[in-house]
Structures are given as C-alpha cells and as structure tokens.
Amino acid sequence: MAIDCVPLRDRVLVRRIEEEKTTRHGLIIPDAAKEKPQEGEVLAVGRGMRKEDGKVIPPDVKPGDRVFFGK
Q1: Model pTM greater than 0.90?
Q2: In 3D, which of 67, 58, 3 has the Cα closest to residue 37?
Q3: What average pLDDT does range 15-43 have in this prediction?
C-alpha cells in the first residue's frame, strides 16, 4: 500500500492487523463476540514534536513497525 501523504507533527498512521478467526483448538469465533484488534502496522509517521526551543523530537516508531495501541 503506497502512502501519498505524511501525517503532521507527532501523528502516526496505523493499519489494524486482523486477528485469527479461529482459536488454536479450531473453534470459530463469531464477529459479534470479537473485539477490534489493538495491534497494527505503522504505515506513515510524522516528523515529530517540536519543543519550545525549536528542536524537533523524532518519533520512536518507523513505517513497517508492529505496534499495540489503546482504544
């Protein structure tokens, strides 16, 4: 997937990674019983947050990293 734009400041664009539809034991989990995944792959990263003195603090993640995120 090609990204044509860059997020502003310290923002990160993440694509959710879908979880398995079955358990290790072969049970199928219905969509209504599943929560949305909280794991994703970083697609694009902003340049970072600017401090009061003008220096830019770069983000800790880069495109391609797998991350966990809050709801």
Answers
A1: no
A2: 67
A3: 72
Percent of the chain residues topping a pLDDT of 90: 34
Instruction: Determine the number of helices (DSSP H) and then strands (DSSP E) in the chain.
Output: 0, 5
CA atoms lying within 13 Å on the CB side of residue 3: 14
45, exposed or middle or buried, with CB in 10 Å at 0-12, 13-18, 19+?
A: buried
CB atoms within 10 A of CB 56: 12
Domains and CATH numbers, the chain: 12-68 (2.30.33.40)
Question: How many angstroms separate the CA atoms of 36 and 70, rounded?
Answer: 11
By residue count, the chain amounts to 71
Segment 35-64, tens digit of pLDDT:
666 889 999 999 999 999 989 999 999 999
